[in-house]
Amino acid sequence: MDYGMFGGMPRGQVPVKHKVFVSYHHGRDQAYYDAFSTAFHDRYDVIHDNSLERRVDSDNVDYVMRRIRENYITGSSCTIVLVGAETWRRKYVDWEIQATLDKKHGLIGVYLPTAARDPNNDKIMVPGRLFDNIQSGFASWLSWSQITAGAEHLERFVADAKARSTSVIANTRDRLLRNA
Length: 180
Known about the structure:
With about 180 residues, the chain is α/β, with parallel strands linked by helices.
């Protein structure tokens, strides 16, 4: 058998790219998404919603949730939430996390250097549904520097997230119906 440049793969076969969905606040954190996508495009098929606010023209929450599940979450195995200054208050981020949990996919929260901090206790402001799952032990909580340390690190974090027990998923919080 002829093995090509992929070392160990028969010539002509391309390595499978695992799909991850990235949820983030487009208005404030696009540069971080772009850096993440650029850094890992060889290893991962990075999916994002391309701003649901512009693409899904509907006020029907059930319809929007179905679109999130069908068009963005289905086919991926893990959602990575980039938590910046206003991510904690974005309804579509909450809905994307909910859809991820409904599908029982892995979940990783990544706090960005721009993440907002609570003035009362200096803790990072985290989307509520993500926080519930960090507390339950289902979601990972990592820094931007940890997640971008290299493809092998990201691969380990994604594998860990996918292997976590779905029995600890916490998905009972009321859905955000508007941005806070």
